[in-house]
UniProtKB/TrEMBL annotation:
PROSITE patterns: FLAVODOXIN_LIKE (PS50902). This is Flavodoxin-like domain-containing protein. It comes from Microbacterium aurum. GO terms for molecular function: FMN binding. It comes from the Bacteria. Residues 3-157 form the Flavodoxin-like domain.
Length: 164
């Protein structure tokens, strides 16, 4: 299996999820590239294209929410993020799955949902994958979330076995 992961992260939690999934897929024999959204190419082709971002203001990070993240202690982030990258995307060929991180209370909004909608504007279908919960704005991820990311990656490999 060939997989490409595109990730945006301010406090490192979405990156930790993305790296856990990438490592798990590699352990199972996949070849995996991980790109920061700021430098991801506009055309991607792979068996699995995973897009991972934190939820900001109920949706995907924007220029203003990035500034708010920096005010809340994030290191100065690389811009642009997933939202701006998706606006420049010309082709995503393969199974596209959106995943996100959230603060996990009841009305959090969802970066993953926003990714699915944004990808649809390009006429591309993305599946809404899992959301991983952080304990606070800067993290860490809630206990068990890394294991859940690993299990999810294993389920993807299991589901794709038998396919090319
Ligand atoms: C400006 C800003 C707005 C946020 N808005 C939301 C929100 O609407 N819903 C939510 O669940 N979490 C929200 N959060 C918390 C983020 O989801 C959390 O910081 C992120 O998932 C951590 O991932 P990261 O370490 O990869 O940046 C917000 C965080 C920031 C900095």
């Amino acid at each position: 299996m060939r997989a490409v992961v595109v990730v945006e992260s301010y406090f490192g939690n979405a990156s930790q999820v993305a790296e856990t999934i990438a490592t798990t897929l590699r352990e199972r024999g996949a070849s995996v590239e991980v790109h920061d959204a700021a430098s991801a190419p506009p055309r991607l082709e792979a068996d699995l294209i995973l897009i991972c971002a934190p939820t900001h203001n109920l949706s995907l990070p924007s220029a203003s929410s990035r500034a708010q993240a920096v005010q809340r202690g994030a290191p100065q982030p690389a811009e642009p993020g997933v939202q701006e990258w998706l606006d420049e995307v010309t082709a995503l060929t393969g199974r596209v799955v959106a995943i996100g991180t959230t603060a996990g209370s009841r009305f959090t909004g969802s970066a993953a949902k926003a990714i699915v909608k944004r990808v649809a504007r390009k006429g591309i279908r993305a599946e809404r994958g899992p959301e991983f919960v952080v304990n606070a704005t800067a993290g860490p991820l809630r206990t068990g979330e890394i294991e859940r990311a690993r299990d999810w990656a294993l389920s993807v490999v299991a589901g794709s076995s038998g396919q090319k």
